[in-house]
Specification:
Order of helices and strands: HEHEEEEEEEEE
Number of strands: 10
Strand order of the largest sheet: 1-3-4-5-6-8-9-10
Largest sheet: 8 strands, antiparallel, barrel
Radius of gyration: 20 Å
Strand content: over 45%
Distance between the termini: 33 Å
Length: about 220
């Protein structure tokens, strides 16, 4: 993992040395839809198929926000290191879907809530405002909570949150890529997909990886 972080530093330093124009700075933020992938998640979904929809998995909705530096390498290409706070996670939902008993509204939900600092270093191409980008990303887990809720007849019977940070790997190496558009007034829009390459559990025994879609707005100073 230290090698991955060193690689990001070297890429940024190399970009600065080859920069032909002054770097620009900006801020960016938006919404995320995060989940998990891997054999462990696939096996879980296979098992849940037998519940006929009574227990399902879902992505966790959240947000990301942070700042970036764009380092031009020429008229069309640049390197863009950034640092973002990002919410990720996963959900497991259960509902009592028994004919004639829908009025009970029996439900339960377990939600893994991750808080990360994402540090991507992107190679970006800009063609008359239209942008494409991709690159490596290192993420540091700030905190992970497991929240469990349950209810019936509209009443909340259980709402418990537990810190489970020590059960998960603090560092995650991954890749990210997407598209965007830079307007002449400094505003920009983007959509990206992040995919973790490091097993998320602390012992790295479970084949489960972070993944996240994000859509955001930015402003270049």
């Amino acid at each position: 993992m230290k090698r991955n972080f060193l690689l990001l530093v070297l890429i940024t330093a190399s970009a600065l040395s080859f920069a032909q124009q002054r770097p620009t700075f900006g801020v960016r933020g938006g919404v995320t839809s995060a989940g998990m992938s891997g054999d462990a998640v696939g096996n879980l979904n296979d098992i849940l198929d037998f519940t006929k929809g009574m227990i399902t998995t879902a992505d966790r909705k959240g947000f990301f926000a942070g700042a970036y530096t764009n380092i031009p390498l020429g008229s069309h290409f640049s390197v863009e290191p950034a640092a973002y706070y990002a919410q990720k996670g996963y959900q497991l939902r259960g509902e009592l879907n028994v004919k004639g008993m829908d009025f009970l509204g029996v439900n339960a939900k377990s939600e893994l809530m991750y808080q990360y600092i994402d540090i991507p270093v992107l190679l970006k191409g800009d063609f008359s405002g239209f942008q494409v980008f991709a690159g490596p990303q290192v993420s540091y887990l700030l905190q992970s909570d497991l929240r469990t809720t349950a209810g019936v007849l509209g009443f909340n019977l259980l709402d418990n949150k537990m810190n489970v940070t020590n059960q998960f790997n603090r560092l995650d190496a991954g890749v990210t890529g997407g598209i965007g558009y830079q307007f002449s007034n400094g505003l920009s829009i983007m959509g990206a997909y992040d995919h973790g390459l490091t097993k998320v559990d602390a012992n790295r025994n479970v084949s489960s990886y972070n993944r996240s879609f994000k859509v955001g707005l930015g402003f270049k100073f």
